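Q: How do we represent a protein-ligand complex in a form that can be generated token by token?
A: Start from the inputs.
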Amino acid sequence: MKFFIDSADLKELADLAQTGLVDGVTTNPSLIAKSGRNMLEVIKEICALVPGPVSAEVTATDHKTMLAEGRKLAKLAPNVTVKVPLTPDGLKTCKALATDGTMVNVTLCFSAAQAILAAKAGAAFISPFVGRLDDIGQDGMGLIAEICQIYAAYPAFKTEVLVASVRHPIHVITAAKLGAHVATLPPNVLRQMYQHPLTDKGLAAFLADWQKTGQSILG
Ligand code: E4P
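Then emit the structure tokens for the protein with erythose-4-phosphate bound:
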């Protein structure tokens, strides 16, 4: 399972990249706005920091302008993945960019029907937003199960399931059980995944006993 980080905060990304566990990055217009940075500059810097796919989202809504934006974003770095919304124009743009050889992440997916369309349009990634579905009382992880089942039935679909809008480690565990290819994690969720009180308690006890021996491994 690949881990992407859902952030445009360079400091956070640099810190998390050091874990050796980060396979890519996703951004969206809200995250760019939160960074307070120029989008093109920040995407270039993220691409230099993390060698894997870095999603940069178009902001136009019509096909012609989306395609121009997507082609401009794709030129920023070889690891840019252009993100387009799941609309008719977005999928038309996905198909054109995929034909260019650009990786496309289709975002704002909330149904299996939409995920089928994205796969047919040649998306490299489909981003179902599990947390936002949970927020309105629908079953976010149920959607991941449906999409994984459908994609597995069609080996010609090369689209990877990128679990987005992740709110907590249970989303990640469930996504892994379902065989989702990628989860994009807010920085706090990756940090939460390390934590268990018994790890802290066990380590404290081991270190206290070690102290009593008076030994040092490095001499
Ligand atoms: C994914 O690519 C999106 O940027 C993100 O996961 C949205 O998450 P949110 O629902 O927490 O905004």
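The chain is about 55% helix and 15% strand. The longest strand covers residues 80-85.
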